[in-house]
Please model this.
Amino acid sequence: MRETLDRVGKEKNISLRPDGVRVYCFDQFCVETNHGKVKFRTEKAEEHFAFLIEQRGGFVSRHLILDSLWEDSDGERALVNFNSTLYNVKKAMLSFGVQIKIEYRRGSYRLNTDSLDCDYLNFFAVASRKSPANDENIIDNEAAASLYSGDFLRGNESPWAARSRKSCRILKWRSCLRCDAETTG
Model:
């Protein structure tokens, strides 16, 4: 399967094996580097990192991050928690030899995902294409379905993760249906 993913990555100009960091969002969230599995100081720091990954490299307002991760906290406390967890995310990654790029612009944050090899990002890049099934993209659809190795962030019951989990399930089944349509059609 890895050979298929590598071939699809080359053909579609999708980096499936960048050096440095491997992130697993399907099933149990896990971040691995060449130096081992990253251990975040708190579950909330881990969730903060996962939330930024879920944005797929796009900018997200600090307000939305606060509302999504600290929905039950008052504004001032949520802001303190935000700053602490963002610091803890960077520190955890640095302790494993990885400097992640979190950009700030006009009240919004963006995780530069270029150096991440992430099952969720790879899955979404392939599965979200809307092209009809044919001989050329059947392998893409099979690759997307194989990347989905379990529910997105299994065990995280926050509303933002639940929404993304539902979107991933829909994309997986669409990929499977496109595969089935091509093989039976």
Q: What stands out?
A: The first strand starts at residue 21 and ends at 24. Confidence is low (pLDDT under 50) at residues 12-18. Helices lie at 2-12, 43-54, 62-69, 75-94, 119-127, 138-147, 159-184.
